[in-house]
Amino acid sequence: MDLCCSIMASILRIISSSFCFCASLGLCSMDFIIDIVSLIISIISCAIWWRSVIMVPIILIASHEAFRLVPSSLREASLALGVPKWRTIVGVVLPVASRALITGAILAISRALGEAAPMLFTAFGNPFWNLNLGKPIATVPMLIYTYATGPYDDWHRKAWAASFVLMMVVLVTSLLTRAFLRGKTNE
Q1: Which CATH superfamily is domain 2-114 in?
Q2: Quick one: DSSP state of residue 151?
């Protein structure tokens, strides 16, 4: 049983590592497939699906490293006291690895937000506000691309402003995460 789990873990690690490094390379080819699929299902589900394809390998690798960083002496001490294995994981391993797990999740979200290509190809670029998620929607990357390549100086200023807003969202998210993690270390 342990050998089978070890082999499956190795295979999963290789697949997730290759997806982590190749996810951005295959965006253009996958976007054509997503365009066809998004005609059948909603655009928001395609965007969510593609973001998860980008995020899952990063979360897998980060959580694997976070759990490897937990000292084995803590696990052994808990098990030596007669604590069941599941209770050791919940009560010892997860609290110690929580900061690294949160950091890995934030890195994955940041990478997914930074990938503008899927949104450029799957949102179909509606310039108007639309509440129907089954129809083309407006996205910030599409707005930046349209206005930055436009012929008007006013559009260029709007593209810079939208880029600034996008950067501020990422900055505020990072600062809130740091404040949250700093609060956990002082406890």
Answers
A1: MetI-like (1.10.3720.10)
A2: S
